[in-house]
């Protein structure tokens, strides 16, 4: 029998040659230096990737992610949603328009200061001293002297049907903007509710897909073992492998859907696109659903769409009144108090320069080439359109009340059967797998039981989310109940 060259025939191990000679540490030092250099390169690469990640704005993964409830999500969305902020901005603009319109019907006070210099007439001829009227001291006879100082307070008041109608129109426009802001608020609730529970359901679907993938892998292992034991045909193992591969693809799709839902919700909630957050799954707690009579009363009382349509009709009516004001006379009054003198002084040569004057102007429209009539016609057309939209809003309210209420009622009534179906599908899958191991069922029955369980579980999750969204849609018409 041949022996290894490191062994002697006596069976003793030859002495090791490591340690003999002065250069025996050189290979070890080289290997140690190379390892240290590689470790330094890995550490530098890790630091570079970390810096690049932080510079790219990625959310750090250190620390526990923040937990967000639905109310937290609504509060955050009110600060970041551009459509909601646009409605709030329009409401603020309408409020300022009302302030400006009110100022148009109230007296305004201003203080005017001016200095007028006019070229003088120069040396007067001799006949100017002999005539009774004399000669003007300035080139322009409309001016009172070479130097004229005006320092007067002016109280101005305009009285017209147009100004009064504009003020009433601004008040109606403010009510319309307030109603639209309420519409945006309730619409934002629906949007956030859909995104929030869409993410919750996506997480549940991902968990269901994980369980389905594990169940398919376990069934594949059972089929292979039974095939090796000669108890089932090779076709069963092939079918089980196909099912396992399909579940793996479904798991990847579920993960992709979950990430998309997370991104959609992050866009609504965070100004800096933060993705490190978690949501509270409260789908098990169902909100109570009132009767249809209570919903109908709340809808007629608290519906913002109806208030917006009614306010729009009032705006159109006031625009017609304002257009009529363009065909009627308008009165303006100015009261001046101050000085209008050749010297900027209260007294000149013992004469008091302070005084007052009043100017009243009555403007009567006569001919404008049909422009005023055209404005009146436009206002009447807008009023007719607003009346049509008001009637449509009333009918649409009644229709949507019934639709949204039936949607919520149906979704709530299906919750019990969906939960029962999910439990039965889980029991069916367990029993069918046991029967397959005992040789009493086919591979197709097991695959069908797996698919049925996945569909029943997803349908139950979708049903819970559907009820929450249906209630949010109903509350857009009635408010919170």
Strand-residue proportion = 5-15%
Write out the strand line-up for the largest beta sheet, numbering strands in chain order.
Answer: 2-3-5-8
Main sheet summary: 4 strands, antiparallel
Q: From the alpha-carbon coordinates, what is the Rg to the nearest angstrom?
A: 44 Å
Q: Supply the helix-strand structural class.
A: alpha+beta
Number of helices: 11
- Provide the CATH architecture: Up-down Bundle
When the domains are counted, the total is 1
CATH top level?
Mainly Alpha
Number of strands: 8
Q: Enumerate the spans where pLDDT stays under 50 for 5 or more consecutive residues.
A: 1-61
Whole-number mean pLDDT = 85
**Alpha carbon gap, first and last residue:** 95 Å
> What is the fold named in CATH at topology level?
Outer membrane efflux proteins (OEP)
Helix content: 55-70%
* Shape estimate: elongated
CATH superfamily: Outer membrane efflux proteins (OEP)
Provide the succession of SSEs. Answer: HEHHEHEHHEHHEEEEHHH
Describe this protein's structure.
By secondary structure, the chain is an alpha+beta fold. The chain has one domain (72-118, 144-478): Outer membrane efflux proteins (OEP) (Up-down Bundle). It contains 11 helices and 8 strands. The strands form 3 sheets. Strands 2-3-5-8 form a 4-stranded antiparallel sheet. It has a two-stranded parallel sheet with strand order 1-4. α3 (82-105) packs antiparallel against α5. The longest helix is centred in the middle third of the chain and has 68 residues, at 161-228. It is elongated, with a radius of gyration of 44 Å. The protein starts with 25 loop residues before the first helix and ends with a helix. The relative contact order is 0.11.
